[in-house]
Design a protein that fits this description.
The protein has twelve helices and eleven strands. By secondary structure, it is an alpha/beta fold.
């Protein structure tokens, strides 16, 4: 039995939201699955220690467009899959599965769109596996990697170890870096803290502001580290505070309480799936009203974020 799962969304957070359902399909069929996924989802790094995967087939610019359809269909056909589960309503992926000769095709209703991401995935998967599933992702890491990170970065109980998620996919989704600097300063006065700055290579200007600030002496920046290196660091921490970004979803999936600052993205869809995520939304908004085009970065106060963080550090 060979089983393919198609999950074509771009983000790290998206992929982690689907983790319980990927595992459930693997368990139901009693096989390791193949996953067709965007390279940008970083699934090969996220799932490197998981045991439900046989392989990851990357969707990239060479095979994820109309011009690459023939190439992708040949890739899929040569693997001779018996089943495919398609986590979207695209007719293109249904046609791909037919062309590839897959006899058993299970898919969202065609043209499904504007859905609550985790709810649609949950209902679809429960129908296929015949049981109720938790929406909570639990990402597995090898214990030796966790211990290695703890020793390398001297993470211990003498300090509160906090991930600051200062990165974001765009400026409207990013709480001002000056707020994070002041927040870290206030938290360190409350309790001795060590801050791990979750940022990428495109965030060097933000990272530099931290390096030249009054909090630099108790911060470690991670812009040069891979996802594989960052995950065990997160696992050793007490708390995540930051924007709605992949780092927040990684933290929640590793069992870390995660304060997510939602300014311009769907707070309900991207926080309600996990009990580990504590959403903060702009003043005057609710978790359900905060979505794309809310543009609320100036309506989230430092006082509110500090108060919430203090609650989870006490």
């Amino acid at each position: 039995m060979k089983v393919l799962v198609i999950q074509q969304r771009y983000g790290i957070g998206d992929m982690l939201i689907f983790l319980p359902y990927l595992k459930a399909i693997s368990e139901k069929n009693n096989v390791k699955i193949s996953l067709l996924a965007k390279k940008t989802s970083r699934s090969s790094e996220l799932f490197k220690d998981e045991n439900f995967l046989d392989e990851i087939i990357n969707l990239d610019t060479s095979n994820d467009r109309i011009s690459g359809f023939l190439k992708l269909s040949k890739e899929i056909k040569k693997r001779k899959f018996d089943k495919v589960y398609i986590f979207n309503g695209s007719i293109r992926y249904r046609f791909l599965s037919i062309i590839a000769g897959i006899k058993n095709i299970y898919q969202y209703p065609l043209f499904t769109s504007k859905d609550i991401i985790y709810q649609t995935a949950k209902v679809f998967t429960e129908t296929q596996v015949g049981k109720i599933l938790s929406t909570e992702p639990n990402l597995f890491l090898k214990n030796e990697e966790i211990i290695k990170a703890k020793d390398t970065y001297n993470i211990n109980d003498q300090t509160k170890n906090i991930i600051l998620g200062v990165s974001a996919s765009g400026p409207t989704k990013r709480w001002d870096i000056e707020n994070y600097i002041e927040l870290a300063s206030q938290l360190n006065q409350l309790k001795k803290c060590k801050f791990f700055i979750a940022a990428g290579k495109n965030d060097l200007e933000i990272v530099d502001k931290i390096k030249f600030s009054n909090i630099s002496s108790y911060c470690i920046t991670m812009e040069k580290l891979s996802i594989s290196n960052i995950l065990p660091i997160i696992k050793n921490c007490n708390l995540y505070i930051g924007n709605d970004t992949g780092f927040m979803h990684m933290s929640a999936s590793l069992g870390i309480k995660s304060i997510g600052i939602f300014m311009d993205s769907p707070a309900y869809s991207y926080s309600s799936y996990s009990r580990n995520i504590v959403p903060i939304v702009p003043k005057g908004e609710t978790i359900k009203s905060t979505t794309h085009d809310t543009l609320g970065k100036d309506n989230i106060s430092l006082e509110e974020v500090f108060k919430t963080a203090k609650k989870y550090l006490d």
